[in-house]
Amino acid sequence: MIRDLLIDKKLFENIREKVLKEGDEELIKRNSLENAVLKKLRKKRSLKKYKKMGIRKSDLKEIIELADIVSLELFGGPSDYQIINEHPEWCSHCGTCCRESSPIFIHKDEINAILTFKSDLKDDIVKNRDYEEHFMFKKDLPCRFHDFEANRCKIYDVRPQVCRTYPLVLVGDDDKSGYVIDLRHKCDYSIHLVLEKSIILFDEAIRRLET
Ligand code: SF4
Ligand code: SF4
After folding, report:
1. DSSP character at residue 20
2. Probe ligand 1: pick from 80, 83, 89, 96, max atoms within 8 Å of CB?
């Protein structure tokens, strides 16, 4: 159980419990993402190499679960947002986020820029009931600005902030707000993010095991 070298068991269980409250659908998405990461992690950190140290597949799975659930900030490392910002190449430009994300939040300060670009959209932008400062497109799934043929955004230069930080989505609008990973296994960016965090955490656990 090399995860115990990184985080107090009870603290991890508490965090995990909160995540499990997200419901079955979220759990299925989580499992799919973690399985996709496991395949890649086994290529980067082969079990053969660590067999003598007693490392098993279950250890890798536990590390991935930790990487998926917590930010590296908990260990003095970078936030998910910082990691993603440094790796734009992780996005495969598949367009899934534009076709399957809903709602697409628009901050009140972003509306004018969008309307300057396409003024006839005025009636298509409505207030978001959950977040005071935000509006949303009346109709999405897919987003009406997604160009299917070119697989690109028709309003790229003025796209809302939420599209710029994807696959991280900001939840909450108070001090406790933070980013969560959306779409998960369907997004290469999400898989790379959790893989990168898993590698960092795995290497740190091995370092602690050896000292
Ligand atoms: S952020 Fe993810 S879902 Fe969106 S285009 Fe990039 S890889 Fe695809
Ligand atoms: S505004 Fe552009 S980037 Fe944002 S979801 Fe729509 S098509 Fe995608």
Report:
1. H
2. 96
